[in-house]
Specification:
The chain is α/β, with parallel strands linked by helices and 347 residues long. It has 2 domains: 2-75, 2-enoyl-CoA Hydratase, Chain A, domain 1 (Alpha-Beta Complex); 88-256 and 300-329, 2-enoyl-CoA Hydratase, Chain A, domain 1, CATH 3.90.226. The protein is built from 14 helices and 13 strands. Helix 6 runs parallel beside helix 8 (205-217) and helix 10 (263-270) crosses helix 12 (281-299). The longest helix has 19 residues, at 281-299.
Length: 347
């Protein structure tokens, strides 16, 4: 664990970059070279505050947690370390019935998934990692009935929850962190899939996205999957370490919907000829809405559960009970291999 305050350049920054987690005060600046070395290399003259300030190093993923000052850094460092020091006997949690109102009835409306995390976790236990980097993916440490877990969750308020390249890197690296320290992982899925298109492919998404599959397939800690709403395509599989069948359990809230791709896109592909043959715009839109509604009924969580694609559809208020059952029944080492990760990827 690295804690930095003020200037951190050259060799000090290299040591900091090798840490599992970096905590930085708001007045910190971090760079692989300080102003003197930069100027000596003929790259211009800069003040120390211009070289790697928090405003740069938090959004790009270098800094994991921003704190106000050194006193706050000590507090957060203790909180972080506590997750690797065993279970707590004393705990409390919010009223779990509040989870029933997190996801809107209107499937097209966004919501704050952090409310779900804060409600699901033990009171004051949640510690978000890399909050300012890759906003479409949330990674956090938390406790459930005193037991430490890692949590990954899609953020529907960014790209509708689609997983982009930075989001894949964020989740993949966090999964490695959890695996290295034997922390079970809870996955809260609400994604239409991976972000696609020519612009997305410029970011080497094929490689970045595949990190989730490769790392997920080699986890030695148990993963528990809870579908909050959307679970489409390869992105949904990535949120389940590659496949729902590999998780300790895969359940869904009643708002869950599943399929090989998003409903709207599926309708446009499957019914293109039918829709193009309708000249009246209003009738075409009505037909389109009817097809979407039909696919929605087919992909509802209850229907998916009837075909055993997932284990069950649950009352959101029972989510903690399912997680605790998974924690108590899954072996500490979930994978059959005796190999253990000797380090956590620096990125």
């Amino acid at each position: 664990m690295g804690v930095t305050s003020g200037r951190c350049f050259a060799g000090n920054a290299a040591l900091l970059g090798g840490c599992d987690v970096i905590i930085a005060t708001r007045n910190s600046t971090t760079g692989m070279a300080g102003p003197a070395m930069i100027e000596a290399a003929g790259l211009g003259a800069f003040s120390p505050d211009e070289v790697g300030p928090v405003e740069v190093q938090a959004p790009n993923g270098v800094i994991d947690i921003i704190v106000e000052d050194e006193k706050d850094a000590v507090r957060v460092a203790k909180h972080y370390l506590s997750f690797f020091q065993g279970d707590l006997k004393d705990w409390s949690c919010p009223d779990q019935r509040l989870l029933r109102r997190i996801v809107p009835e209107n499937r097209l409306r966004g919501y704050d998934v952090r409310q779900a995390l804060a409600t699901l976790a033990d009171t004051d236990s949640l510690l978000e990692i890399r909050r300012d980097f890759a906003p479409g993916m949330i990674t956090a440490l938390a406790r459930i009935e005193g037991r430490p877990v890692g949590v990954i969750a899609n953020n529907p308020l960014h790209l509708g929850g689609a997983i982009d390249a930075p989001g894949a890197d964020k989740a993949a690296r966090f999964m490695q962190l959890c695996d290295a320290f034997d922390l079970p992982i809870v996955s809260l899925s609400d994604t239409p899939g991976f972000m696609v298109g020519p612009e997305s492919e410029r970011l080497a998404t094929v490689r970045h996205f595949s990190r989730l599959f490769v790392i997920g397939a080699n986890l030695s800690v148990p993963m528990m999957v809870v579908v909050l709403r959307k679970a489409y395509g390869l992105g949904a599989q990535a949120m389940a370490a590659g496949t729902y069948s590999s998780a300790v359990f895969s359940v869904s809230w009643p708002t869950g919907e599943m399929g090989p791709m998003g409903l709207e896109g599926a309708v446009q592909l499957a019914y293109r000829k039918e829709l193009d043959s309708i000249d009246d715009p209003e009738k075409r839109q009505a037909a389109y809405s009817s097809y979407v509604a039909e696919l929605y009924q087919q992909g509802k969580a209850m229907n998916a559960a009837s075909y055993m694609e997932i284990d069950d559809v649950i009352d959101p208020a029972d989510t903690r009970r399912w997680i605790m059952h998974g924690l108590k029944t899954a072996p500490k080492r979930f994978a059959s291999s005796d190999k253990k990760r000797p380090f956590v990827d620096a990125w």
